[in-house]
Amino acid sequence: DAGVIQSPRHEVTEMGQEVTLRCKPISGHDYLFWYRQTMMRGLELLIYFNNNVPIDDSGMPEDRFSAKMPNASFSTLKIQPSEPRDSAVYFCASRGTGESQPQHFGDGTRLSIL
Amino acid sequence: AQSVAQPEDQVNVAEGNPLTVKCTYSVSGNPYLFWYVQYPNRGLQFLLKYITGDNLVKGSYGFEAEFNKSQTSFHLKKPSALVSDSALYFCAVTAAGNKLTFGGGTRVLVKP
């Protein structure tokens, strides 16, 4: 079975550029989560969706960050404009219905802003 | 508010010896507890969970965890560690919500 698929796996870009990260959740999962992982702050939840609707975006650090889920099989996380402090590994995870269900993570996008 | 503490940044163990990774939590209500493992350049992989019932939970790759309500702990254990178990381990908790709170992670190094 295909897991959560993220693209690109690595992204290097210059400060000020727009960055778009992509995620395809596991088919049939109705929850999708975006996380950011850094050495300093660990794993942080940025936003999550249920049935394609954003439910909680309180973890989004600034207005420069935005996320969309236009359909059940695709989500994007966009940073515009990007800054060096946005450098991190960004993970997407999906989950089925029920809080007892585990989240399944993609392999992440390693983002470096120069 | 919910929180998770993993008191050890790193655990070193010899191959073949028992492995324990500690986790304590704080939530309001009944907790759902999870353990994940992360290998280099990979996402978090689900190992096991406690929802209700038997306090000893068995999971993937020979791992198990013991839920202790009075001590609010959920320690991960493996009777005989392998070099391939070297990785970063995360404990996570949720209660009556969809947001998982993760601990800071514990790096496990298993030496041959």
Order of helices and strands of chain B: EEEEEEEEEEEE
Number of strands of chain B: 12
Terminal residue distance of chain A: 36 Å
User: How would you sum up the major sheet of chain B?
Assistant: 6 strands, mixed
Compute the average pLDDT of chain A: 95
Poorly predicted tracts of residues of chain A: none
- Characterize the overall form of chain B: globular
Name the shape of chain A in a single word.
globular
Q: What is the typical, i.e. mean, pLDDT of chain B?
A: 95
Number of strands of chain A: 11
Structural class of chain A: mainly beta
Oligomer: heterodimer
Question: Nearest-angstrom radius of gyration of chain A?
Answer: 13 Å
Strand fraction of chain B equals over 45%
Descriptive report:
- The complex is a heterodimer of chains A (114) and B (112).
- Chain A is mainly β.
- Chain A contains no helices and eleven strands.
- In chain A, the strands form two sheets. In chain A, strands 2, 4, 5, 6, 9, 10 and 11 form a seven-stranded mixed beta sheet that branches. A four-stranded antiparallel beta sheet of chain A has the order 1-3-8-7, with no helix packed on it.
- In chain A, a hairpin with a 2-residue loop joins β5 and β6.
- The mean pLDDT of chain A is 95.
- In chain B, strands 2, 5, 6, 10, 11 and 12 form a six-stranded mixed beta sheet that branches. A four-stranded antiparallel beta sheet of chain B has the order 3-9-8-7, with no helix packed on it. In chain B, strands 1-4 form a two-stranded antiparallel ribbon.
- Chain B contains no helices and twelve strands.
- The chains are: A mainly beta (114), B mainly beta (112).
- Chains A and B meet through β5 and β10 of A and β5 and β6 of B.
